[in-house]
Amino acid sequence: MKKIFKLTDEKKHEDRVLEAVKHEIRKYVKREKKKKLDDAQNTYWDFDCKIGVTPDTAKVVEYDALIKELDAVKADGATDCYIEILAKVVQKPTKETDLEEDAAE
Predict the structure, then answer these.
(1) DSSP state of 93
(2) What SS3 state is found at 66?
(3) Under 8 Å between Cβ of 86 and 48
(4) Which residues contact 36 (CB under 8 A, 6 or more apart)?
(5) How many domains does the chain have?
(6) For each of the chain's 105 residues, which pLDDT tens digit applies?
């Protein structure tokens, strides 16, 4: 998802507009996580995120910090916000207990 969100609306309170943007972000991530993985036991969905006032000034952030960065952009007085979230498949890290069991056999 690559989108420029309006953070102000004449007919709505600014906090409600911000909450609507956050809801849309969470809804998108939830929808992406529901997609089937080829190897669900060894992979999971991860997200590359960027946020900024414009696409050129957007900086890379972790998904966990995206909402806090959105609040910071709003606190700076921006009326628009560019958000980019791209889903990617990532290998799960191997567990040490699995490695120890394999070595014991």
Answers:
(1) P
(2) helix
(3) yes
(4) none
(5) 1
(6) 999 999 999 999 999 999 999 999 999 999 999 999 999 899 999 999 999 999 999 999 999 999 999 999 999 999 999 999 999 999 998 877 555 555 555
